[in-house]
Amino acid sequence: QQPVQSPQAVILREGEDAVINCSSSKALYSVHWYRQKHGEAPVFLMILLKGGEQKGHEKISASFNEKKQQSSLYLTASQLSYSGTYFCGTERASNTGKLIFGQGTTLQVKP
Amino acid sequence: DTAVSQTPKYLVTQMGNDKSIKCEQNLGHDTMYWYKQDSKKFLKIMFSYNNKELIINETVPNRFSPKSPDKAHLNLHINSLELGDSAVYFCASTRSRSQETQYFGPGTRLLVL
After folding, report:
1. Could you read off the pLDDT of A1-54 as tens digits, one per residue?
2. How buried is residue A19: exposed, middle or buried, by Cβ count under 10 Å (0-12/13-18/19+)?
3. Could B104 and A99 be called an inter-chain contact, meaning their C-beta atoms sit closer than 8 Å?
4. Which residues contact A19 (CB under 8 A, 6 or more apart)?
């Protein structure tokens, strides 16, 4: 039931790009992306809704393939501040707000 | 002003004790949640309330009891604490029940000795 994220960890240099994937075996209603820095709370990045609507951060993009139940988060021209653990949260049924989070992807951006 | 606040921030206690964690949101949201994040960073939903009504009750031991006195507050009481309860507990809120941004509180770091 828990979505699977890949890769588990990635190390980048500033300015490089990264893609984080989230895959579910169940039909999804929406996919949410959050970033958590060490010792802090998760912070919202993006919501992708069934039907194609997106809500979120201007500098971060994502896609949602409803047929494959997969979502990808695209981080371009990475900055040091992008470092942290990225979680996808999947919502399976409407009107519940219940998110099942993936195991997280740790991103480290080096100077 | 902090949007979602939790108290206490840290909680160190002995096995067998009973403890409570409090959460308050000043965003005017209708829905609030409790999550548990373990040492491997796995973030798992425990409970959710919508306008004081329990709408999500995941498989957690009945030693955990949430209470929502009003829609701005959600508390979590834990009886007979066990070592495995050690974790970070996050409260979150959303404007409504579905497809909404979840705003997380700063977390309560619980350590059971």
Report:
1. 899 999 999 999 999 999 999 999 988 889 999 999 999 999 999 999 877 777
2. middle
3. no
4. A72, A73, A74, A75
Chain A nearest C-alpha distance from B48 (Å): 8
Find the CB nearest A42 among B44, B48, B104. B104
Whole-number average pLDDT of chain B:
94
* Tokens 């999947």, residue located: A90
Three-point CA angle A47, A73, A12, nearest 5°: 145
Query: Which residue from A34, A49, A101 is facing B99, i.e. has the nearest CB?
Result: A49
Which tens digits make up the pLDDT trace of B37-81? 999 999 999 999 998 899 988 888 999 999 999 999 999 999 999
Restricting to A residues 30-89, those with a Cβ less than 8 Å away from any Cβ of B are 30, 32, 34, 36, 40-44, 47, 49, 55, 85, 87, 89
Say which residues have a Cβ less than 8 Å from residue B62's Cβ, sequence separation at least 6.
none
